[in-house]
Amino acid sequence: MDYFILLTVSGIAIGVIYGLIGMGYALIFKATSVVNFAHGEIMMLISYMAFSIASSWTLPFWGLLLVCVFISAIVGLVIERVFIRPMLGQDVFSTVMVTIGLAVMIRAVVVLIWGADPLLLPTDIGDSGVEFGLVFLYTSQLYAIGLLAFCVLGMWVFLRFSRMGVAMRATAARETTALLMGINVTHVYAIAWAIAAVIAGISGVLLGTIYGLGPDLWTQGLRAFPAVILGGLDSVFGAAISGILIGVLENLSEGYIGQGLKEISGFLVILVVLMIRPYGLFGTPEIERV
């Protein structure tokens, strides 16, 4: 039982990161119907930027996070304006291919600027933590849990009550109708990419603090993708919840079945979910009238 508790808690600790990353995937898809395969690379780029900032200036963790949030929003806006907006009106497949090309480019840029050696993101929280009985959680892991809760609450308030959130939901429901109602769809797309980049930046700072940096950090974005499928590609909140489920499942499968299953257990879940509920646990099924 003690072993089960340890595996579950450590799975939740990484699962909240998956949930944050998954929220970025789902937000982009909800607003633009495009799967952003460069989301993990954007997260990695911002985490390396955070390393450069933390190495140049002495900032507390929250100060570094706020600076990275600002930088992330700019990165998201630039990517949307330079790479995505010219693809408006093109088929979805072409836009997805652009995100794949962008992902490869970011990986190369990160290695070119920062090198391929592993790095440690210097923050003031260090290895401090809190012990709960048999379980020890680092401060950074507790921050991750709190930040996921904050982002979920913030996105719920934004999408439900703000004018831009309502416009984003309307655009996601039917883009043509949104245009006829006077909604600036390009502006909605830009805001969606900026918010998704901010969420990616928060995830990158947390990952860099907990696990360190490396040129393979982008794979965390790929490992979080099953959470998006499980929750539903168009469900921001479903991705957050499913990220925790995937994190726990990964740990339990490796702990009880065997090493190596941690990397593939999430994708096995995808296969099962796509066969039973192709739209995910919390996604919206598409209904076409014929």
From TrEMBL:
InterPro entries xrefs: ABC_transp_permease, BCAA_transport_permease
Ranges annotated as spanning the membrane: 6-27, 59-80, 92-115, 135-159, 188-213, 225-249, 261-280
Main location: membrane
Top-level division of the source organism's lineage: Bacteria
Cellular localisation: Cell membrane
UniProt membrane topology term: Multi-pass membrane protein
Similarity comment: family membership: Belongs to the binding-protein-dependent transport system permease family. LivHM subfamily.
The protein's name in its UniProt record: ABC transporter permease
Organism: Pseudosulfitobacter pseudonitzschiae
